[in-house]
Amino acid sequence: MGVEYFAVATREVVKTISEKCQVLGKMLEASRVKLHSAQEIAQGSVFSQTPLLQEMNRVFEQLQGSAVDPTMVGGERGKTLFDFVDAETVQSLQQDTLEQTKEVEELLAAHQHAITRIAAIYEFFCTFDKGHAHDVDALVGEHRDLSSIAEEEIKPIEELYDAAVSFFVDMEQCDRFLLQYFTTINDIYPHYEVIFADVQLLFDELRSLRDFYLQFLASYQSVGAELHRRKQYDLKVRQFIEETKAKLAALEHEEIALRSTFCEEHARFLPSTLCPEIQNLPDKFTIVRKISLTKEDVVATQETH
User: Which domains are seen in the chain, by residue range?
Assistant: First the structure.
């Protein structure tokens, strides 16, 4: 009866060891899947975008190297395009992005460390089966009738029981570490979604600023050509005005002569009260320059009325 009890107890302990090993294996695999998913997302939404930080620095260098024509800033010398950007805000965004990226790295590293430790414990759990599988199957396997154990098998079963119980105790000692590692993973995983979203927003904002400042640089480089075009326009307008003034003067001179001739021939025969305007000289016309308002000035003017 005692031998059969040992055999049954040994079988149950071994079964428990096997079940714990299987459960841990499944939990380990699930944790690895979570880590792999987080790593893929981090690579796609975080790490692959980090070159943007250096791109922003290169854009700033371009702006710092682009001198501004003093005539565009009231004669002030030494200004560059960099003086017209909100560098402090951009640098703050860069710093926030770096810190968030580092936090992602730390979360992934902690997740990986926990899995590495769990995997090591799992490997330890598997050593019992690797070392005793043959004895377990031969002595207390499911196919064995434990009521018919031979005398020579008693001692091996007792030794197997002692080994199984000792190993099970060691497994239980590992449980507190497993709890710690799985708690770490469970605490980390919910943070991924939030931090990935936060980092993506930061990168989106940096990308928008990079594109804006690149366009700012390109737009400034186009200002010279635009100012030259406007200067040509002003020259054409002034030329047109001078030509128009000359034509008006010629027309006026001709009209005065015609009216004088008419009056010399007919005015003395007409009563002064009859069509007195016949004595009038032609109207004079003056071309006046009017300063155009900017769009902002127009809006401001409309708001004040």
Answer: 1-222 (1.20.1270)
